[in-house]
Fold DMT family transporter.
Amino acid sequence: MTVAGNGAHGPESTAGASLRTRAAPALAILIGSSVWGLAWFPYRVLAQWGVAAVPAQICTGSIALLLLTLVYRRSLGTLRWSWLLAGVAFAGGTTNVAFVWGTTHGHVMRVLLLFYLTPVWTALFAHWLLGERVGMRGASLIALALGGAGLMLWSPELGWPVPNNPGEWAGAIAGAAFALNNVLLRRVSQALPDVRAEMRSWTLYLGCVVGGLLVLPFDGGAEAGRATVSVLTSSMSAAAVALALGCTIAVTNVIVQFGLARVPANQAALIMLFEIVVAAVSSWWLASEGLGVREIAGGLCIVAAGVLSGLLPDSGRCKSATAGDAMV
């Protein structure tokens, strides 16, 4: 209750405000996870209209980069040349290009579950680049995630439990690059404290555009580029989808940054796993894709490794507080 005339707040009002303060950042991350879990669909729509995966990623990444430049233009002055930032651009670009290509050409849920082998790669990269011990806890999570991947991928007909097609390989590569990006972002925050956090995201999307251009020769090359320009200039629907997707990616990044700055790293990592739920429902509903019992069991092992990674944080282990920076 508010006391008239003096602006004082009673316990009920204070409790309500506190609840809203805690709920808003978590909701921001939840919104971001939902967007990422649905992002595969508009890319597939664009592919059906003649815009290949990599050219589409270049277009949406360019739009996101332009918007972030406008929003964060006052922070551009904090940028400086560093191999660490170049590494962030490389890892972030690889993550986005591989993720978009994989979900466009592969089975969405299998690609996404391979992507979420991130705890395995994070532990290895953190040991290599940050000198952090893997430890028994980390080794157990690695074993659980790899066991789940093996269960999901193995079959008597296909032999060894490895990705079975280029789309699945792209998902695995995207997950490894995602982990590398998280580790490098931690190094950047330590070594370059004067670089504003939003400029790390800006650098990442610059890497998305440059990385897409470098990979374009392997996804149709100049012909795919010309086809993309032709489709986007002749079809208002395709242009609208590409513009809306690019703007959504940029706005989502801003929203998620708000949440990540206010939610503990382990809690944020757990909330982000909601992306798998959204992707599972959307791929079943929109693309009629399902998973068998063995694949579901393997996927649950991978998700469990991610959950335990958040529930049982280790002070000596790399945390993914900036994980949202790396998404499409």
Q: What stands out?
A: The chain has a mean pLDDT of 79.
